[in-house]
Q: What sequence folds into this?
């Protein structure tokens, strides 16, 4: 039969403060996520909401971001995963306890910029797509699992006045291990 879907409701509050001193810009806060509903095992979850940007010179900048929060997985977002998805149980919201990302940007020469970054993410009930074969029919299933993810990203861009803009970027992600 079909899963026993129950309504879940989320309220997010994020008080924060900002500080700017010369080349340093800091935003610090706390994300408080309240979840209600029959399947809400942890009604209150907390995560950081912080960023630090350091721009000592016009040619270089360094950025650190720590954030988190809840993704409720609307039907529209599940359709983006696959228009043929099917779930055999309640699709739970994903909660990101921490998403840490460090990146640096360098202007090598006029118009040519290089970006390098990396990060680490801890997720509860992360949504993964699975391949399901049933009675000769293959479709995309979805399932929730706890996970830790490492990521690296790089990019290069070139701008020539207001006439030409070229960019290329890439990202590599690997699920480190599934959390219990």
A:
């Amino acid at each position: 039969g079909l899963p026993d879907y129950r309504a879940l409701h989320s309220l997010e509050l994020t008080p924060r403060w900002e500080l700017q001193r010369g080349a340093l810009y800091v935003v610090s806060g706390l994300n408080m996520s309240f979840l209600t509903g029959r399947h809400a095992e942890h009604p209150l979850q907390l995560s950081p909401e912080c960023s630090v940007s350091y721009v000592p010179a016009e040619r270089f900048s360094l950025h650190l971001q720590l954030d988190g929060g809840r993704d409720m997985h609307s039907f529209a977002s599940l359709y983006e995963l696959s228009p043929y998805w099917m779930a055999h149980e309640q699709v739970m919201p994903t909660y990101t306890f921490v998403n840490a990302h460090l990146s640096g940007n360098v202007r090598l020469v006029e118009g040519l910029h290089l970006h390098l970054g990396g990060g680490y993410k801890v997720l509860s009930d992360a949504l993964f797509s699975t391949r399901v074969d049933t009675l000769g029919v293959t479709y995309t299933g979805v399932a929730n699992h706890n996970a830790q993810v490492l990521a690296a990203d790089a990019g290069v861009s070139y701008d020539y006045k207001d006439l030409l803009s070229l960019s290329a970027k890439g990202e590599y992600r690997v699920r480190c291990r599934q959390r219990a």
